Amino acid sequence: MSGNRTFTMIKPSTVSDGVAGAILARIQEAGFRIVALKLTQLSLHQAGIFYLVHRERPFYHDLIAFMSSGPVVAVILEKENAVEDFRTLIGATDPAKAAEGTIRKLFAKNLQENAIHGSDSDENAMIEGSFFFSGLEQF
Ligand code: ATP
Ligand code: MG
């Protein structure tokens, strides 16, 4: 399955805005199949592990506080060229720089509350997917 799966997470302030369903519809319309899906909340510690690669960055502590502040929608997705195509669908990290029609352009509030996460490599997609889901939860 290498190359065909990615992991995404709809971020807390976007879930609380009530637009998770609208975002999932766009993802499916773009040709991604849902492999695994759950509403769950990260502890501060778990968010710290998920974003450990950014631990030296000045925004790390704010980011993990935000990401553990409420429920997220965690999803594994399948499509040919999943990682790259999904990053294109969500748009640039900074919504001010995101292309028209992208999920971040449509739903992000600012650089931190940018609506949605997308894995940046096949290897991270696998690591992140198995952080949230057991084999029995993937279809
Ligand atoms: P994600 O990993 O969430 O998909 P990304 O890969 O586009 O986003 P990263 O560089 O991995 O961007 O940053 C992880 C997250 O940290 C961003 O999505 C955003 O929420 C936050 N972030 C990144 N840069 C900044 C910044 N300069 N100031 C505040 N928050 C930031
Ligand atoms: Mg990233």
Summarize the structure.
Helix content is 40%, strand content 17%. The protein has 139 residues and is α+β, with helices and mostly antiparallel strands. The protein has a four-stranded antiparallel sheet with strand order 2-3-1-4.
CATH class: Alpha Beta
Low-confidence stretches: none
Q: Report mean pLDDT, rounded to a whole number.
A: 97
Rg over CA atoms = 14 Å
Task: Name the beta content range.
Answer: 15-25%
Kindly report the CATH topology.
Alpha-Beta Plaits
List the secondary-structure elements in sequence, H or E. EHHEHHEHHEH
Strand tally: 4
Structural class: alpha+beta
| Domains (count) | 1
Which strand order spans the largest sheet, edge to edge or round the barrel? 2-3-1-4
Structure description:
With 139 residues, this protein is α+β, with helices and mostly antiparallel strands. It has one domain (5-134): Alpha-Beta Plaits (2-Layer Sandwich), CATH 3.30.70. Helix content is 40%, strand content 17%. The protein has helices at 12-16, 20-29, 44-50, 60-67, 82-90, 103-107, 122-132, and strands at 5-10, 33-40, 72-78, 116-118. The protein has a 4-stranded antiparallel sheet. The chain is globular and about 35 Å long. The site of adenosine-5'-triphosphate has 10 residues, from β4.
